[in-house]
Specification:
Layout (H helix, E strand, L loop, with lengths): L22 E2 L6 H14 L3 E8 L2 E12 L4 E2 L6 E2 L4 H14 L29 H5 L9 H9 L10 H9 L25 H15 L3 H10 L7 E2 L14 E3 L5 E3 L14 E2 L1 H11 L4 E2 L2 E2 L3 H7 L12 E4 L5 E9 L2 E8 L4 E7 L6 H9 L1 H9 L1
Antiparallel strand pairs: 1-3, 2-3, 2-15, 3-4, 5-9, 6-9, 7-8, 10-11, 12-13, 13-14, 14-15
Helix pairs in contact: 1-10, 2-6, 2-7, 2-9
Length: 384
């Protein structure tokens, strides 16, 4: 089950003897941070981890630790693709909002104007659901885990075999096989109650597909992955011919690592992106540089301001909002799936950010905090 953007996936993990961890890609003045991260990995039972720090819109540090695949003894590198779970949502939102900024729809449009089937909350049949409602998790649509999602998640292995539009129509259209007025919708009108929603972000991916005329994976490449020159990023396992993604791991009853396999879900725009720390840090550094990288404008600044405004009381989308402990505001999103815990956090005012990707189940917030506190030091050391 994917974690919400409000709290990390909480898994109680006992402290036991840990496997020997390789570390790669660190300069000689990062030993203290390396030691702290390795200690936390041992305590939390995390087999592999990749992390990055961004300052002033520039990647100032990348760290890689542990194993991408224990059985094959493949260490994590800066090019290892990780399943990032719900950290996929800001990527989907960036792509969708680019279409809005390009004038292809309005945020307060009724989504039914763009869909091949009709979506209404049956409790409020005359209230249209808008793009803004979906982006903010306030649509009145809810994830029916036990009645619907579980059948996919329990058998997930490899790329999804159900088409995105078919999956969503069966869940949201009154004539759909898995439609349930009581279980798939809240008794809250669109724009009302906050309820974290994977289905909503899958629906945003389909809407982007319908509006643009491109399959969402192709649109992602056209608008974001290609312009950013991302080399190890894709929505499906078939996108990684020569780069094997990190294996997700859990623990058995004797606290030994157990590989879970590579999961794929039919609501994939909500949480199935795989990417490396090199690629995701390139996205975040661009996001924190008003959309610019290598002298090119890749993400429209209006997209960034809509999703994560410098003054958040103007309304924000996708991200969770918190503080950095020093009066600064942080936008964050985490991700949790079977054998996966991830976190991305950013401070737009200071242009700072941290990414943590793992192939284990743990609360990784303390690791992200350790890196965030070290950003200025890491930046100074890199400039020596």
């Amino acid at each position: 089950m994917r974690a919400s953007s409000r709290s990390l996936l909480k898994v109680m993990i006992p402290i036991v003897a840990f496997i020997s961890l390789p570390t790669t890609g660190h300069s000689e003045n990062k030993e203290t941070l390396d030691t702290a991260i390795l200690a936390k990995m041992a305590k939390l039972k995390i087999p592999g981890l990749a992390a990055a720090a961004i300052n002033s819109g520039r990647v100032v540090w990348i760290g890689t630790y542990g194993w991408a695949n224990i059985e094959k003894q493949n260490p994590v590198t800066s090019n290892t693709p990780f399943m990032i779970a719900s950290v996929s949502k800001p990527i989907t939102a960036t792509i969708l909002t680019t279409l809005y900024v390009n004038g292809q729809f309005e945020l307060d449009d009724d989504i039914n104007e763009y869909l091949p089937f009709s979506v209404r909350n049956p409790n409020f049949p005359f209230n249209p659901i808008t793009f803004r409602n979906l982006l903010r998790h306030r649509s009145g649509i809810t994830d029916n885990y036990e009645g619907f999602y579980k059948q996919y998640w329990d058998v997930a292995d490899g790329d999804p075999t159900t088409a995105l539009d078919e999956y969503l129509e069966s869940y949201l259209d009154p004539g759909g096989k898995h439609y349930s007025a009581s279980d798939n919708f809240l008794e809250s009108k669109p724009g009302g109650q906050y309820s974290y929603c994977n289905t909503c972000y899958a629906l945003l991916g389909l809407l982007a597909q319908q509006i643009s005329g491109f399959p969402f994976e192709q649109l992602s490449q056209k608008l974001l992955f290609g312009p950013l020159q991302l080399k190890t990023t894709g929505w499906f396992l078939r996108d990684f011919d020569d780069k094997e993604p990190a294996m997700p791991y859990g623990l058995d009853d004797s606290d030994k690592f157990v590989p879970y396999g590579q999961n794929g879900y039919p609501d994939w725009p909500a949480g199935q992106l795989r990417t490396s720390i090199n690629d995701l840090s390139r996205f975040l550094s661009t996001y924190l540089s008003d959309g610019n990288i290598d002298g090119d404008s890749v993400i429209d600044p209006d997209v960034i301001e809509i999703l994560s405004p410098v003054i958040p009381d103007q309304g924000f989308h996708t991200w969770a909002l918190g503080g950095d402990g020093n009066g600064g505001l942080l936008y964050s999103h985490d991700g949790g799936d079977i054998g996966v815990s991830t976190l991305l956090t950013l401070n737009r005012v200071d242009s700072k950010g941290v990414i943590v990707l793992t192939n284990g189940e743990a609360d990784i917030e303390s690791i992200a905090n350790e890196i965030y506190r070290s950003i200025d030091l890491l930046s100074t050391k890199n400039n020596d």
